[in-house]
Design a protein that fits this description.
- This protein has one helix at 2-21; strands spanning 25-32, 37-38, 44-51, 60-67, 72-73, 75-81, 92-100, 103-107, 112-113, 125-126, 128-129, 133-135, 140-145, 158-165, 173-180, 188-192, 198-200, 205-213, 216-220, 228-229, 242-245, 247-248.
- With 255 residues, the protein is mainly β.
- The strands form six sheets. Strands 3, 4, 7, 8, 9 and 11 form a six-stranded antiparallel sheet that branches. Strands 14, 15, 18, 19, 20 and 22 form a six-stranded antiparallel sheet that branches. The chain has a three-stranded mixed sheet with strand order 6-1-10, with no helix packed on it.
- Strand 18 and strand 19 (216-220) form a beta hairpin.
């Protein structure tokens, strides 16, 4: 009986030692862009758990999760790590990158601390696009105002919108255009088609807006400086990224 007890105790110690040697924990969350975005076929999302305590030395990798063939952002991740490798005084952070083969598509540009120094156990990781362009998946919303007309516009009134890229004056081109009927009254709300539209923070844009009725051009934006507009990569939610005023052609001819 005594020998049996000793054998059971030894077995329990052996199991405990195995469990202790293989003790792991997890950090989880989502890799997120500022909006939902489809990823190209074959994209890979890599999230790493890093010890970034030493400013003058390379970060120490504590674990990683690789999501192959990720279809879209946000995407969930889960990283296993060994708690025994953690120093409570260390700075532990998450890093994420999205790649297509050797091409980097998205990367985090802010610090996401976890686990130590009062940081949360889990965290999402926000990434930005490394391309100067960002494919829009939401309509480009806008408003057209005018203080020169009260009440409804005529039933045959048509608003014509063109958004020009004027970054290279000699090679300006139309990014997107559309026309709208049933305008009602000012301010006129509109949404530009977004399929294939690319917007860059580094480019300059002009909004051309014309209103025609009675067979003639009646309102426009006469001065090129008044057409200038600054756009973000893509508008979010209900934010209006294009707002401008039109003026009667009879009083404000084109410059």
């Amino acid at each position: 009986m005594h020998r049996l007890v000793l054998c059971v105790a030894a077995a329990l110690l052996f199991v405990a030692s195995i469990l202790g040697c293989n003790s792991t924990d997890r950090v989880s969350g989502e890799v997120r862009f500022h909006r939902e975005v489809d990823l190209p076929e074959g994209a890979t999302v890599t999230v790493m758990l890093l010890d970034t305590s030493l400013a003058d030395a390379s970060a120490i990798e504590l674990g990683r999760d690789v999501i192959d063939d990720a279809e879209r952002l946000p995407v969930r991740f889960s990283i296993e790590y060994d708690p025994g490798e953690l120093d409570g005084r260390a700075e532990i952070t998450l890093s994420a990158r999205v790649e297509l083969g050797d091409e980097l598509l998205y990367i985090n540009d802010t610090v996401h601390p976890v686990l130590t120094r009062g940081a949360p156990r889990n965290s999402d990781v926000s990434v930005i696009s490394v391309s100067e362009f960002d494919q829009c998946v939401e309509p480009l919303r806008g408003q057209i105002h005018s203080s020169f007309w009260d009440g409804d516009l005529p039933d045959d009134a048509v608003l014509e919108i063109r958004l020009w890229d004027v970054s290279e004056p000699e090679e300006r081109f139309v990014v997107v255009e559309a026309s709208f009927e049933d305008l009602g009254e000012f301010p006129i709300h509109f949404e530009l088609p977004y399929e294939g539209v690319e917007i860059s923070r580094h480019h300059r844009y002009e909004l051309e807006a014309n209103i025609r009725f009675d067979g003639e051009l009646q309102f426009h934006i006469p001065n090129s400086e008044w057409r200038r507009t600054v756009l973000p990569y893509c508008p979010d939610g209900d934010d209006l990224s294009i707002v401008n005023d039109v003026f009667p052609v009879s009083e404000f001819p084109a410059d």
